[in-house]
Design a protein that fits this description.
16% strand; Double Stranded RNA Binding Domain; three-stranded antiparallel beta sheet; two-stranded antiparallel sheet; alpha+beta
């Protein structure tokens, strides 16, 4: 029943690494919500995943550091739909989107220099500020 999760052209997470758990959803819904386990929780271990190369793992761990448990698990949950299947599909799509964003390589920083006009503006502003401070008199110096 479980399918592999295709993240992008290079990364596919095997279904064996994804752990889905169904629990009772909270919120309104009357008798239906009290009797059916429609909330889906997805757990995936980024540290132990065989789907990622070492470089990809470093990018994912850095990008999702605040969302990972101490063991390296990423836990996502969805209870927006009344159907287990739709919640399961949505939480899998969320994981794929998170990983796609995390796997984008960072753009290299290009060293830049301030323009001549910006340097001149900065110096002019410093001179104006200094002039304002010079015009302020000392307290009690009415000579």
């Amino acid at each position: 029943m479980a399918e592999d999760l295709i993240v992008n052209a290079r990364v596919t997470i095997p279904a064996a690494e994804l752990e889905f758990t169904a629990t009772r959803a909270s919120g309104p819904g009357g008798q239906h919500v009290n009797t059916s386990d429609t909330r889906i929780q997805l757990r995936w271990n980024a540290v132990a995943s065989a789907a990622l190369t070492d470089l990809q793992r470093q990018r994912v761990l850095a990008a999702l550091a605040s969302r990972l448990t101490t063991g390296g698990d990423l836990i996502l949950a969805c209870d927006t739909h009344r159907s287990q299947r739709r919640n399961r599909d949505e939480v899998a799509a969320r994981l794929a989107a998170l990983l796609r964003a995390a796997l984008v390589p960072p753009r290299p920083r290009r060293a830049t220099r301030p323009t001549a006009s910006s340097r001149q503006k900065r110096l002019d502003q410093k001179k104006r500020h200094g002039a304002v401070k010079r015009t302020r008199g000392r307290a009690g110096s009415d000579d």
